Every structure is written in C-alpha cells, then in structure tokens.
Amino acid sequence: MTPFDFRPRTRVLFGAGEFARLGEAARELGGTRCLLVADQGMLDRGYAQDAIRSLRARRMEVFAFHDFSSGPTAAMVAAGAEYAAPHTIDLIVGLGGGSSLDCAKAINFVLSNGGSIKDYWGYGKAAKPMLPMIAVPTTAGTGSEAQTSAVIADSESKVKMACGDSKAGFRAAILDPKLTVSQSRTLTATSGYDAISHAIETLVSTRRNALSECFSRSAWRLLNSSFERVLKEPEDLEARGAMQLGSHFGGLAMEYSMLGAAHACAGPLTANYDLAHGAAIALVLAHVVEWNRPVAARIYDELGDVVSRLRELAEFAELPATLHEANVPEAALPRLAEEAGTHWTGKFNPRQFDEAAALEIYRCAY
Ligand SMILES: [Fe+2]
C-alpha cells in the first residue's frame, strides 16, 4: 500500500448559519488584527460587511483588501501584501470563491516570508512560519480551503504557478451552505462539475492512497447525488451543503492524490479560449475516463456506469458537449495538445499521458 503522512490542519465548522461564528473562530486562533481578503462580489452581496461585523464584535481590527479579480495575478498578490504590511496583521481571512482563498494564501506567503509569490512556485519554499488563516468559501468547487497550494498567474506570461507549503493550510474553514445559495446557475454548474472531476481524477491517480480514496469516494457520493438537485432547486440547503462538503472532500483528496489528464487537457482550453475551468473540464472528463479504462476499469466500475453518468450530469447542467460546440477550432488541436502534454497534472494520470494522448482525447471530444 502507498505510505502517507496525514496531518489534519484545518478545523471544519460545517452547517447553515456557521458563518456567524467567524469572529469566534478568529479569536480562538489568537487574532487581533485581521486582513480580510474578499473579492468585489463579496462586497456587492454584503458578505464582506457581515464578516467585518462578526470580527469586530470580537474586538478585532479589520483591514479589507478587495483589489483582485478571478484568476489572481502575482501583481495583485504584491498589492495585497503591500497594503497589509504596515498594519502588523496577525490573522488572514479568505472569503469568496477559489480566487479569494488562493489570493489569501498567496498574500500570506509574501507577507510572512518576503519576496514575490513567484519565489514560492513549487512546494515547501517558505522558510519562516506563516500567519494563521481562516477560509470561508462561498462556492462549492475548488476545495481550495482544504489545500496547501495557491494557483497564481504570472503577471506577464499568464503562466499559472502552483505555490504551496505545508504551512500554507487554513487553520479553520467555515462551510456554511447558505453562502453558496447566491451563486448563479452557471457558477453552480461549472464549479460543481469541477468538484466532480476532482473526485474522479483523485480516485485513480498514481498518487492515491487508502485515505485519499476515502475522500474521493465520499466526494463522489455527495456530489453525484446533489448536483442535479442544486441546479433544480438552488435554495435547497441540504443539497447545497452536500455540494459544499463534497467539494471539501475533493479538495482533501487532491491534497494527497493530485489530479490527472482531464485537468491537463482543460488547462490549455481555459488559457486560450473564453471557457470557465469547470466547462473545460466537462468537455474532456468523460473522454479521459474512457481513455483511462484499460488501466483503471476496476476502480471506475465501482462507481457504476460512470461515463454515462458524467455525460448525463454535464447535459443536465447545460455545459458545452463538444469542443466544436465550444468554438475551439479543429486546427488548434495539435498546438493545444502540445501544451496539455507538459501540464503538471498529467504526470499523475494512471495511464501514461503525453502530447499524443492529449491529441487523441481532444479529437474524441471534438
Ligand atoms: Fe479543478
């Protein structure tokens, strides 16, 4: 069996209304001066104001940073660290989707260890201790609250840099399904399908271990049974909670088991075309499962007819079904395959994955 070192580092507060306990959780971590990293949408929806109220009620000083967008860049991270530096921050709260959570982690690297975020590209490059952090995810998808890496784009080249360290894990995560109710149908669909792909890819990756398999299977069970429900009844808190937990378990599985060829093939699609990550994943995931079958059939079969189910879920969510339908020109496939072949997640795919494999998968998906 594959050896592992499981060190749970995140306290998880799960349930409708748990968001109100943010101030209490922050105090328990010894925070007195808090940096709140929350995107503009959090201000528009009033969640940022709610967070500030909860923190202030516990006598904390709050400094809010909102100047970043989805897919945060190194320059945005630098601006956040520069803003926070004079305030002698002792705690960071990330509130929002994966971008807010990744931005919070990245600012922590620079604030506590100096330099620029690019210096931490890779894993384990932060020598000094990092500040305690709390995650409050408002989407169910990335599972970033369960991971010790942040994905940040290089400001010039736009290359996505995964920057991680075992010290960069959130000390607490508040999973309040009420916060995910205001996601649009499109965001619910794309982020939910992304979470589903995390369950599927981690279950078969070459890095999987007995523990990550538990998280992958639980994630699949929760997501598979609630994805259609949240799309049909967006206010259903039971289903929203199941999606949020499923996404969290998927994130935990990823922390140990990495990903695979579907993420490798989706990377160049989002980088070159106007496609959300989850939509790009939906275009290739079922094809990757079929392509992997010769080496992973036994594991997939435990989930039932997983290829048909993945297609059914994508169709229900009205995600694009083919690369052709998503306006990807056929002539671009070889160039995209070249990019996909070098994507870091492909290394962990159970069947040896390279440029030729990516082209085969893209052609099936066209
Ligand atoms: Fe993903």
Annotate the secondary structure layout:
Layout: E1 11-14, H1 22-28, E2 33-38, H2 40-44, H3 47-56, E3 61-65, H4 74-84, E4 91-96, H5 98-113, E5 122-123, E6 133-137, E7 149-153, E8 160-164, E9 172-175, H6 185-204, H7 210-232, H8 237-257, H9 261-272, H10 277-301, H11 306-316, H12 333-341, H13 355-365
Parallel strand pairs: 1-9, 2-3, 2-4, 4-6, 5-8, 6-9
Antiparallel strand pairs: 7-8
Helix pairs in contact: 1-3, 4-5, 6-7, 6-8, 6-10, 7-8, 9-10, 9-12, 10-11, 10-13, 12-13
Mean pLDDT: 96
Secondary-structure-based class equals alpha/beta
Spell the H/E element sequence.
EHEHHEHEHEEEEEHHHHHHHH
| Bound chemical compounds | fe (ii) ion
Oligomer: single chain
Distance between the termini: 38 Å
| Helix amount | 40-55%
Low-confidence sequence ranges: none
Q: How would you describe this structure in keywords?
A:
single chain, alpha/beta, three-stranded mixed sheet, 13 helices, about 50% helix, globular, binds fe (ii) ion
Structure description:
By secondary structure, the protein is α/β, with parallel strands linked by helices. The chain is built from 13 helices and nine strands. Strands 1-9-6-4-2-3 form a six-stranded parallel β-sheet, with helices on both faces. It has a three-stranded mixed β-sheet with strand order 5-8-7. Helix 4 crosses helix 5 (98-113), helix 6 runs antiparallel to helix 7 (210-232) and helix 7 (210-232) packs antiparallel against helix 8. It is globular and about 55 Å long. The two termini are 38 Å apart. The model has no long low-confidence stretch (mean pLDDT 96). Fe (ii) ion is lined by residues 194, 197-198, 263, 277.
